[in-house]
Amino acid sequence: MLSFDAPTHTYTVNGRTVPSVTARIAAAGLLGPAASFYTAHGAARGQRVHLACRHLDEGTDITLPPGEWGYLRSYERWRDAMRPRWTALEEPHYSATYKTAGTADRLGVLHGPVVVDLKTGGATRWHGIQLACYDLLHEDLAPRERRRLVLHLSPDGRMAQSVEYHDAHDYLLALELLEGHTDGPNRPDDRACPAGIDGQP
């Protein structure tokens, strides 16, 4: 049985703690310079925005501070324009194959199968690896059958901009992560990744 404790971001299976995708990425040093920009305030904002977007999709009541409603409107405008069909909304998932757990923000169909992550910050190289990990954890489809999209939500309410990741090398790095074989020379840098950007991030 899989359990997830949100405050500590801890996954357990039958009472035993298991690694998460996020923990494996951080432990391998893939966050690079971006790690220094993460703050408790930013993390809390991201959690609130994610919850609000989920409540929007579920049709339940939404609570957000006044200054954060723009992120929700940004997501809503993209969703209403693109009309995806979600099959999973932030559902924790465990792979016995990789002994790793993770929570993709969205799984569903958008011109074919898709895995989506919502971000309130800019594009970085490791996002594609993160999505490849989520794709590998869900073994109902062969790797790379799902499109990998990051939605960058705008604080001013403009329609979210999507970044699609195509690099097959992301899957090699993701496999190294999930199997615990990462090493320094294979780490990507943390530059913004322009490939696949629809509009501007």
Please supply descriptive tags for the structure shown above.
201 residues; alpha+beta; Lambda Exonuclease, Chain A; 5-stranded mixed β-sheet; 3-stranded antiparallel β-sheet; 10 strands; globular; disordered C terminus
Give a brief outline of the structure.
The protein contains five helices and ten strands. It is an alpha+beta fold and 201 residues long. The N and C termini lie far apart (38 Å).
Q: What does the model show?
A:
- This protein is α+β, with helices and mostly antiparallel strands.
- 31% of the residues lie in helices and 22% in strands.
- It has a 5-stranded mixed β-sheet. Strands 1-2-3 form a 3-stranded antiparallel β-sheet, with no helix packed on it.
- A hairpin with a 2-residue loop joins strand 2 and strand 3 (16-18).
- It is globular.
- The chain starts with a strand and ends in a 23-residue tail after the last helix.
